[in-house]
Design a protein that fits this description.
This protein has about 375 residues and is of the alpha/beta class. It is built from 16 helices and 13 strands. The chain is globular.
């Protein structure tokens, strides 16, 4: 087996594409201590900040997505694809990686396409239960398609022999996070032995979830459990007037600094159904109430949620049906019924893949 000395990672647009790449790199560096890495992304994407903060070398290419209707912007998108593929080729020729890995987002298209044209081994990682347009396009060219949901295999039917069910590297990372004794008491002033639910709408927050959760605070006041509501930094200041005189069992914060540690200390999560979040929940066997974002391509968050709901690992509230009453009803239904909660936890755990990075590394080693 050839030692992997250099790897190129590409993925961007959202944290759901970036953090799995960084989690995978961490495991690869444990196996290959001298491994060098270059990250290629978009200068305008979150990756330009996150990756640089992680201390990795970063190169950028310019790319944009296709519009669904006839548009002059589509001509620009095609032109950017061609010019960015050429630029990516120059970067790859100079860097000489052993493998190029794409974790999603438009920026992967020129980078992975350039790699396949140069004959460099390639792998793409599809986190959702419905394949993104970029990965559908790249699937015919790359060597391996790593997936997280069995349901997504149908989107790669013509190249099914390339598909490997690996899971998401964030799952392996989160289960390696140690349990911190008395974490709820130290961070939130809560009782460590009392059931606790986290309600959040992602790192940037979700207004519909915030509205329902804050309206439910009077009902939470007399509950036999504790509630943490993370509003998102952008929404927190505008909600200050609603956060006066909170009951002792409710905390409202703008952001969760150490999500893996908190997830290990609580019993239930109310959240969106982004792929990375679901990876963390199933890896930990953590029951959830999922509120899919209706604002994503191909409604993929609802499909993600149904993959858990259909296996009794979660329950779902569509945003169009969400209000404070149904939110409290669902939380009570689970947190006040230990048997139901335990069954859901068991089901979630059976869906969790806790060695995703190891599986992906093994797949890479077959093509390098």
């Amino acid at each position: 087996m050839k030692e992997i000395k250099r790897v190129v990672l590409s993925g961007g647009g959202t944290g759901g594409h970036i953090y799995p790449a960084l989690a995978l790199l961490k495991e690869m560096q444990l196996k290959y201590p001298n491994l060098e890495c270059l990250y290629i992304g978009s200068a305008k994407g979150l990756e330009s900040t996150i990756v640089k903060n992680a201390g990795l070398p970063f190169e950028s290419v310019e790319i944009q997505g296709l519009k669904r209707s006839l548009s002059i912007e589509n001509i620009k998108a095609v032109w950017l694809m061609l010019t960015s593929t050429y630029k990516a080729k120059q970067i790859l020729k100079a860097y000489q990686p052993d493998v190029v890995i794409g974790t999603g987002g438009y920026v992967c298209a020129p980078v992975l396409r350039a790699a396949t044209q140069l004959g460099i081994p390639t792998l793409i990682h599809e986190q959702n239960s419905v394949a993104g347009i970029t990965n559908k396009y790249l699937g015919r060219y790359v060597d391996i398609i790593a997936t997280c949901f069995e349901e997504v295999t149908k989107d790669f039917a013509k190249v099914a022999h390339k598909v490997r069910l690996t899971g998401n590297p964030r799952g392996q990372e989160v289960v390696q996070t140690p349990v911190v004794a008395n974490y709820l008491e130290e961070q939130y002033g809560f009782c460590s032995d009392k059931p606790t639910v986290l309600v959040f709408g992602g790192s940037r927050g979700a207004p519909a979830i915030n509205q329902a959760a804050l309206a439910a605070i009077p009902a939470f006041a007399n509950a036999a459990y504790q509630v943490i509501i993370a509003t998102g930094q952008a929404h927190y200041e505008t909600l200050q007037s609603e956060l006066q005189d909170l009951p002792n069992n409710v905390k409202v914060v703008p952001y969760i600094e150490n999500m893996p540690t908190l997830l290990r200390a609580i019993q239930l999560v109310v959240c969106r159904s982004g792929a990375t979040t679901l990876t963390e929940l199933t890896a930990l066997g953590l029951p959830s109430i999922l509120i899919p974002s209706p604002y994503v391509t191909a409604n993929h968050q609802e499909h993600n949620a149904l993959a858990l709901v259909n296996r009794h690992a979660a329950c779902m509230i569509r945003e169009s049906e969400l209000d404070s009453a149904i939110l409290v009803e669902k939380i009570n239904e689970l947190l006040l019924s230990p048997t139901i909660l335990a069954e859901m936890a068991t089901s979630a755990r059976t869906l969790g893949i806790t060695d995703a990075s190891t599986r992906i590394i093994e797949a890479i080693e077959t093509i390098v």
